[in-house]
Amino acid sequence: MPGPYDYDLFTIGAGSGGVAGSRRAASYGAKVAIAEDWRIGGTCVLRGCVPKKLLIYGAHFAHEMEDARGYGWTVEGRLDWGKLIAAKNRETDRLEGIYKSLLSGAGVEAILGRARIVGPNAVEVAGRTVTAKYILLATGGRPERPDIPGIEHSITSNEALDLVEFPRRVIIVGGGYIAVEFAGIFRAAGASVQIFIRGEKILRGFDDDVRDHLTAELLKQGIEIHAGANVARIERVKTGDRIVLSDGRAHEADCIMYATGRTPNTHDLGLEAVGVHTDKSGGIPVDEWQCTTVPGIYAIGDVTNRVNLTPVAIAEGRAVAETLFNSNPTAMDHSDIPSAVFSQPPVGTVGISEGDAVRLYGADGTDVYKATFRPMKHTISGRDERTMMKLVVESSTGRVRGVHMVGADAPEIIQGIAIAVRAGLAKRDFDRTVAIHPTAAEEFVLMREKLKR
Description:
With about 450 residues, this protein is an alpha/beta fold. The protein folds into three domains: about 5-140 and about 265-325, 3-Layer(bba) Sandwich (FAD/NAD(P)-binding domain); about 150-260, 3-Layer(bba) Sandwich (FAD/NAD(P)-binding domain), CATH 3.50.50; about 340-445, 2-Layer Sandwich (Enolase-like, domain 1). The protein has 13 helices and 21 strands. The chain has helices at about 15-25, 40-45, 50-70, 80-105, 155-160, 175-190, 210-220, 270-275, 310-325, 355-360, 380, 410-420, 425-430, and strands at about 5-10, 30-35, 110, 115-120, 120-125, 130-135, 140-145, 170-175, 190-195, 225, 230-235, 240-245, 250-255, 255-260, 260-265, 295-300, 340, 345-350, 365-375, 385-395, 400-405. The chain starts with 6 loop residues before the first strand and ends in a 22-residue tail after the last helix.
């Protein structure tokens, strides 16, 4: 469509990625509008990372109080779940207000309403049609549940964040990061928790030592993990809800949560009408510049179903703004992206797994260094929890290709280590670094013995 346009950029979806891209574009003088059909802030701020982390903090005080007794403190406490949820809601409300202020302060017009693309440069929203030189899709994703009998009796992570009453018996179906994170929340808060997975291990896609070590730690906490389990149906009974497996076994709980994956929010966006392609998962394929199959229409974040992490969506959104409005063509580099699982204990990881390294370099071309130990804190607290740390090294170059950790503060530690991996540092650079003692992180520069498989 020839100009002039109502806007230089029209963003659909006011989550972290959409807001970041819109603000960056506006800072370069672009006229920008952003549409959102729910609340400003998106999944991470309102239905994901932030509220989940707040619940993790709240539930983890149970561990802190238990550990304090070993240090001589007399501590008694009981969790008021309702107060925790109310406190979480106050914080997310505050953050939504901040996001609104950031948009208005940047000169971005926020429009509440569901937006649909009705032309290569046209969007229908809030009862009117507007035009834009560029359209940015940042609609994110949503929890997905299988179509089985009784699935309406289950909840997803969305509802789990707003449970009014605390469930004493919880079943979680799924073994990904969302599943193990909520398992830790519910267990620490006092519930009995069972995890049901179709495969043999939790955290598919992670390094096997990470998967095995976290499994052992979850079992120590009393979380039951049922592998090779296929749920056939859910039944509502007088004493709760019950899952029935394909082999006929049944398990009952007060709350059944499904965490079996997320799907991109591409339904009813008008994509087909203008020729924007989607893949089998519903995700939107894009090129290195985040452009879809239609020139001028871009997509970022979870809706592309590539690396579904908030900081990635933010970086992609800013890259689009740099490319389109700052004469600075910027392509997002998806290699060596650090990530965390806020389980209890948490996981931090960057780079490739040992399995990936063996496939790339061969078993003889891969060196592995691994340490497991009891953290100093627990020598007095008495908690039976061990930390695992691991380096995956390319033998021919000595370059550290992957770093993995399960244990207290793993995400905080891995964030710093990620800089070293990203910079291409070698194992000898780790070895030459002086340790900070006494810390857990020092083990990353002290490991000398290669693991023999």
